[in-house]
Structures are given as structure tokens and as C-alpha cells.
Write a structure and sequence with these properties.
Length: 68
């Protein structure tokens, strides 16, 4: 019984850490995309931005308990 309790109480901490990692990596994707776009000339920036958005598709965030 003690082992089960220890495992179930550890899940939220692991879930929170995983969520932090996801947010960190999503922020890095956006930051790098914006950096690449800033290096483009104005005539190509929009096309490159659209291409990078398609290439690095990020699903919209869902609230806890919400069904997709």
C-alpha cells in the first residue's frame, strides 16, 4: 500500500516536469523560427514564416480534462 501511494504521488510532479519541458521546447521552436525570419529579406519573410510554421506544427494547447 505504501508503494502504491508513493508512485501515485510522484505522478503529478513528473507530469509537471514534462509539461515544463514541452513549454520550454515550444518556446525554443518559436524563438528559432523568429530568428530565421528576421534574417530574411522582407519579400521572402512571410513565405519562410509560413513554411516554418507548417514544418514545425505545434498542436494547440488543451486544458486539463478537456477531450480533443
Amino acid at each position: 500500500m505504501t508503494t502504491f501511494f508513493a508512485v501515485t504521488t510522484a505522478l503529478p510532479a513528473n507530469s509537471a516536469a514534462a509539461q515544463r519541458d514541452i513549454l520550454k521546447f515550444e518556446a525554443q521552436i518559436v524563438e528559432n523560427r523568429l530568428a530565421l525570419i528576421s534574417m530574411c529579406d522582407t519579400t521572402r519573410a512571410e513565405r519562410v514564416n509560413q513554411y516554418l510554421k507548417k514544418l514545425t506544427y505545434l498542436p494547440p494547447p488543451t486544458l486539463t480534462g478537456e477531450q480533443p
